[in-house]
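Continuing the series of single-chain predictions for the mutant panel. This is the parent chain; the variants come on the following pages.
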Amino acid sequence: MNRLLRQISVLDMTEGVAGPCAASLLGDMGASVIKVERPEGDWGRGSEDPLRPYFVANNRNKRDLCLNLQKEEANPVVRRLVERSDVVLSNYRKGVMERLGVGYEACQKIKPGIIYCTISAFGQKGSYASLPASDTGMQAISGIMDSIGEMEGLPLRVSFPLVDIFSASMAVQGILLALYARQQGKLGTRIDISLLNAALSLQAMPFTSFLMTAELPKRYGNQNPTLSPAGAYRTKDDKYMTIAILGESYWERFCQAIGMEKISKEEMFKNNFHRVKNRAALNDILAPIFLGKTRGEWIHTFKEADILCSPLNTFTDVLDDSALVESISLWKFKLKDKEIRMMGNPIEIDGEYLTLELPPPLKGEHTIAILDELGYGHSEIQVMLSQGVVYSLSTL
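Parent structure:
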């Protein structure tokens, strides 16, 4: 039941993070995904091919065709793949797909109902359209890094490819909309997801605030800019927890829980507006109080008082908490005789998570089988292998 896209075929001509992640999300939903990979390999594999975590995380539920796109003989193979696909997904630079003969207009001629999705840095228009970009660059150029860090500290980068992953999610949403529109009779849809727009939409609240007030957002470290107290605090056992006081009733209960009822009605802390304004003074009061008990003791206290409080976990802490693990979608599989665990798809349908059907592919693992499905005979495949047009596991 959870493989709802099982009749949909996706041609994945992407590398890195955003495109491969989008294709895998569609594969998780049941789509048949063919990944076209260069002989040099998707740069996301890195030097640890095929076990680099970034590649493993973003390339499950797809098959791999290793194709030398530099050779003209590869172009008919790509066009035949398009002919059998419902969705073409690409994150190559502007002009690359056109040079291969499979730009949007060409694909529409091959398959009028094609859904053509590109993930680009700056979109398809304007003087920046042909420029490449990385997740780090997009965090910088979009203002994300400028808003992250301690109040008086340096700008910081989110440590994982936030913009890429969010762009992948947006691409999948666009493709699902196009598939729905196709059911209503729409033939052909062109979708473009720019990393820039994705990065700015992640910041919709502070960006809208700037557009309305012309005030640049400040850095707040681990504090919530709109609530107080709300952020991370150190405890007696040198661990950290987060709390979030969402309203005045919570504030009163919070003050009772920490034994400081006297400050709950003080003018400078009487409501959230004043507490945000006087955040530093309030934190000066709270910091030594939190150092008086261990994190476990505080979490118990705040849960009893119905105050939002969470431990600041490492991944080790997450997996050591059996109750948390019960709530996580995790997949297990073997790759090159190594037992691997990875984060699964978080979507749950009718009580079941989406499943792992295919582990991340080895480079060229399915080349011969895919060419056979495309109608190439044994002798034709052998010629392409000998000429270096395609590669399989036995030739790499």
